[in-house]
Amino acid sequence: MTHAVNRLNLSLIIVGFLVAVTLFLQNMFTFTLRMRQLFLILLCLPYALFAQTDLKKNVVYGELAGAANFYSINIETSVAKGINVRFGIAAKPGELFFIPGLAYLKPIGDSGDRFIEIGAGLTNIIAPKAAFKYDLSGYMNFGYRKEATEYNPIFWRVTFTPLLFRDPYPAAGFMGYLLPWFGVALGYGF
């Protein structure tokens, strides 16, 4: 029964994430419907290849730059082998940022705690419309990370994190832009 519940939870998380990414892509790019469907199938393919396993450790970490563009506090948990879900929050005067995300981890090396990370997510900005031009942005992660283990609970990662901004007031067909960015994170596993 536990495995069935875990699979259901994982399925709901992935479906919700894919719906959010689809809505974002519909507003960001002028892809045809078939191109968006192909993109989402390719995005989901690595997740479908892994079987459900027991949950790993959680990690709490601070990130400089990264998905929030300046700093954020995050909690990340492994929901299946090679799949992590992230929830983050950041704040500036008059602005609040919520940062959900999903990451695929590919192990490298013999130690079992080093990974290549490929992920994506959304940054929802809650602020008065006049204070912030872009109210929603997407991000991608391409990076290297060292996971926390029982013997060494320190977690760190370095990522290339391009940000995709959506303009809530598009003019002359301009829907948003891509900002090449990076992120550095340090945290503790439990």
Summary, kept brief:
This protein is an alpha+beta fold and 190 residues long. The protein contains two helices and ten strands. The protein has helices at residues 2-28, 33-48, and strands spanning 58-65, 70-80, 83-92, 95-107, 114-126, 136-146, 154-160, 163-166, 176-179, 182-189.
Keywords for this structure?
globular; 190 residues; Porin; single chain
Topology record:
Blueprint: H1 2-28, H2 33-48, E1 58-65, E2 70-80, E3 83-92, E4 95-107, E5 114-126, E6 136-146, E7 154-160, E8 163-166, E9 176-179, E10 182-189
Antiparallel strand pairs: 1-2, 1-10, 2-3, 3-4, 4-5, 5-6, 6-7, 6-8, 7-10, 8-9
Task: Please trace the helix and strand order, writing H or E for each element.
Answer: HHEEEEEEEEEE
Q: What is the number of beta strands?
A: 10
Unreliable spans are 47-55
CATH architecture field: Beta Barrel
> In percent, how helical is the residue content?
10-25%
What is the subunit organization of this protein? single chain
**Tally of domains:** 1
Task: Give the CATH topology.
Answer: Porin
State the secondary-structure class: alpha+beta
Mean pLDDT: 76
| Strand order in the largest sheet | 1-2-3-4-5-6-7-10
Portion in strands: over 45%
CATH level-1 class: Mainly Beta
Biggest pleated sheet: 8 strands, antiparallel, barrel
What's the N-to-C terminus distance? Answer: 25 Å
What does the radius of gyration come to? 17 Å
Outline the structure in words:
The chain has 190 residues and is α+β, with helices and mostly antiparallel strands. It has one domain: Beta Barrel (Porin). The chain is 23% helix and 47% strand. The protein is built from two helices and ten strands. It has an eight-stranded antiparallel barrel. Residues 47-55 have low confidence and may be disordered.
